[in-house]
């Protein structure tokens, strides 16, 4: 018989606006060893009107977040 390998499945990083997930630990045989946990979104971190994490810009005139490529 061969050994069992453990991998993390379905993990995703949290973003400024969406929660992430640590991922489930699953065995190569298909068994779920442990369920992951939610990683809470931390929100935007604005510095001089631009989020230092994702680049979103805050427009004081529109009072809304405006996304653009940097």
In the sheet with the most strands, the strands line up as: 1-3-4
Through-space gap between termini? 53 Å
- Give helix and strand order, one letter per element, not per position: EEEEEEEEE
Determine Rg (CA atoms, Å). 19 Å
- Proportion of strand residues: 35-45%
Please give the largest β-sheet.
Answer: 3 strands, antiparallel
Inertia-based shape:
rod-shaped
Give the class from helix and strand content and strand pairing.
mainly beta
Number of helices: 0
The average pLDDT value, as a whole number, equals 84
Q: Would you count the extended β strands for me?
A: 9
Helix content: under 10%
Which spans have pLDDT < 50 for at least 5 consecutive residues?
none
Can you walk through the features of this model?
The chain is mainly β and 70 residues long. The protein is built from no helices and 9 strands. The strands form 4 sheets. It has a 3-stranded antiparallel β-sheet, with no helix packed on it. It is rod-shaped, with a radius of gyration of 19 Å.
Tell me briefly what this model is.
The protein is mainly beta. It has strands spanning 6-9, 20-21, 24-27, 32-34, 38-39, 46-47, 50-51, 57-59, 64-66.
Give the helix/strand layout.
Blueprint lengths: L5 E4 L10 E2 L2 E4 L4 E3 L3 E2 L6 E2 L2 E2 L5 E3 L4 E3 L4
Antiparallel strand pairs: 1-3, 2-5, 3-4, 6-7, 8-9
């Amino acid at each position: 018989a061969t050994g069992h390998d453990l991998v993390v499945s379905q993990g995703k990083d949290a973003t400024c606006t969406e929660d992430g997930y640590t991922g489930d630990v699953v065995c190569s045989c298909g068994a779920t060893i442990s369920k992951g946990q939610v990683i809470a979104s931390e929100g935007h971190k604005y510095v001089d009107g631009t989020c230092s994490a994702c680049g979103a810009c805050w427009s004081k005139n529109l009072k809304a977040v405006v996304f653009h490529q940097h």
